[in-house]
Amino acid sequence: MKLLLHSAMLIKRYKRFLADVILSDKSITTMHVANTGAMTGCAKPEDIVWYSTSNNPKRKYPFSWELTQTKKNHFICVNTLRANQLTEEAILNGTISELQGFEKLQREVKYGKENSRIDILLSYSDKAKTYIEVKSVTLLDDNQGYFPDAVTTRGQKHLRELMNIVKNGDRAVLLFTVLHTGINSVKVAKHIDSKYADLLQEAIDSGVEILIYKADISPEHISLTERIDFKK
Asked: CA 43 to CA 3: how far, in whole Å?
């Protein structure tokens, strides 16, 4: 995925969806943040913010925060909308070799007992469907990547749904997209959400597959490029 971004310096993020930054001309403006999470370690004052622009006159905030460049020179994609886009791109171009041979790819399909939408659904002519739930990983702590970065009842629901998919005879995949260049392996954050950790182990034991792919990130380009390890 090609990017066309501009840089600014972060003052602060607030109200979840807003951030104040200093632009290159020293003026201060507010931009939109497409991220509902805690963004732990991704939004420190004076970090470099890389943002995209929109010409849509209906938008109150024409700038959107896409990447953080930390003081350690790590790049982090904070726009969570990119995770599904990058996953679809990596499936279609063959990067994710475990998810090939399908006849049809669909996005945001309703499914499950708890009124959910699966991020990506792959259909085949000669075998069961593959349901793919995509999660973005951006929490780095003591050189280790973790998910989740906050208690996630929504994530717990998705694990229950995936387990039911396996029971029904289809394939269920939980795909973690690592959108932080400093993360080289991922662990479940039991110290943050112990219920999610227990459900994840139950899901693995029931046959839900775990895939983790890391993104190569720069202000010009971002793409999923390599599979990395899941540490129990």
From this structure: 20
Cα three-residue angle 217-219-225, rounded to 5 degrees: 20
State whether residue 134 is helix, strand or coil: strand
Q: Which of 97, 100, 136, 133 is nearest to 222 (CA)?
A: 136
DSSP 8-state secondary structure symbol assigned to residue 115: T
Inter-residue contact 111 to 131 (CB < 8 Å): yes
pTM of the model: 0.95
Whether 15 and 30 have beta carbons less than 8 Å apart is answered as no
**Helix H or strand E segment including 196:** helix 194-206
* Contact status, residue 217 vs residue 181, Cβ threshold 8 Å: yes
- What's the rounded Cα separation, in Å, for the pair 49 and 33? 11
How many residues in total does the chain contain?
232
81-231 shares the fold of 6-77 = no
Q: Which amino acid is at 40?
A: T
What would be the CATH architecture of the domain defined by 81-231?
A: 3-Layer(aba) Sandwich (3.40)
Domain boundaries, the chain: 6-77, 81-231
Helix (H) or strand (E) holding 131: strand 130-137
> Are 42 and 68 spatial neighbours (Cβ–Cβ below 8 Å)?
yes
* DSSP structure class, residue 2: B
CATH number of the 6-77 domain:
2.40.50.580
Alpha carbon distance, N-terminus to C-terminus of the chain = 31
**Burial of residue 30, with CB atoms counted within 10 A of its CB: 0-12 exposed, 13-18 middle, 19 or more buried:** middle
Supply the pLDDT for residue 232.
76
Indicate the pLDDT class of residue 36, thresholds 50, 70 and 90. Answer: confident
